[in-house]
Amino acid sequence: MIIKAKNLTKVYGKRERVVALKDINLEIEEGEIVAILGPSGCGKTTLLNCLSGLDELTSGSVEVLGKSLTGMNEEEKTKFRSVYMGFIFQFFNLIPVLNAIENVELPLLISKKLKVSEVRKRALDWLEKLHIAHRAKAYPSEMSGGEQQRVAIARALINNPKIVWADEPTGALDTKNSEEIMDIILNMNRELNTTFVIVTHDPNVAKKANRIIRMDSGRILSEGV
């Protein structure tokens, strides 16, 4: 079991309490593609943030790769994420003053796991895998949405993470680019056995996953395909 949540509850506010998540119990196997499906405001992104350690839990527990995130301090969680996790966002979150290859290199440069020359080679390899190497020197403002998302996926995968968290990865794309991005995710899952947890409101995206978790009002309504 690569991810396990037990009685996960998240409450915002003290005077006016908003229960974003209530008693979530969830297990995800290594190599799965899991889609978290539901309407806007149902708690999907909050769940992703709690499972990845970006948000603190109000109560309950989360284990990732057998390690308790709830037992880590912020520095420990940041280091853990940098080694084992990658992130893909709806609006790409590329750094505008860096070109494509520099954006992809960033996680490895921060982690200081490789020499700068090796980082550049690995970044270019990933851009080639995602058929975007010809745009290596382009800046985000010079790229289409589909191109930016390919760069963001390369950045998420350059560290060879065990888990990739994807928050509406096709939400800012047209149908053609959405299908291409999901095909890339499926291929990377098959090639690398990377676990993908995908937040989406789009049933067409969700149906490509191995398992769909349907949410509403901060609760899991059902799990299945």
UniProtKB/TrEMBL annotation:
CDD domains: ABC_MJ0796_LolCDE_FtsE
Domain of life (superkingdom): Bacteria
Family affiliation: Belongs to the ABC transporter superfamily.
Name of the protein: ABC transporter related
Keywords: ATP-binding, Nucleotide-binding, Transport
Record has Metal-binding as a keyword: no
Entry's Gene Ontology molecular function annotations: ATP binding; ATP hydrolysis activity; transmembrane transporter activity
SUPFAM superfamilies: P-loop containing nucleoside triphosphate hydrolases
InterPro entries, sorted: AAA+_ATPase, ABC_transporter-like_ATP-bd, ABC_transporter-like_CS, MacB-like_ATP-bd, P-loop_NTPase
PROSITE patterns: ABC_TRANSPORTER_1 (PS00211), ABC_TRANSPORTER_2 (PS50893)
GO CC annotations on file: membrane protein complex
Domain ABC transporter, first and last residues per copy: 3-225
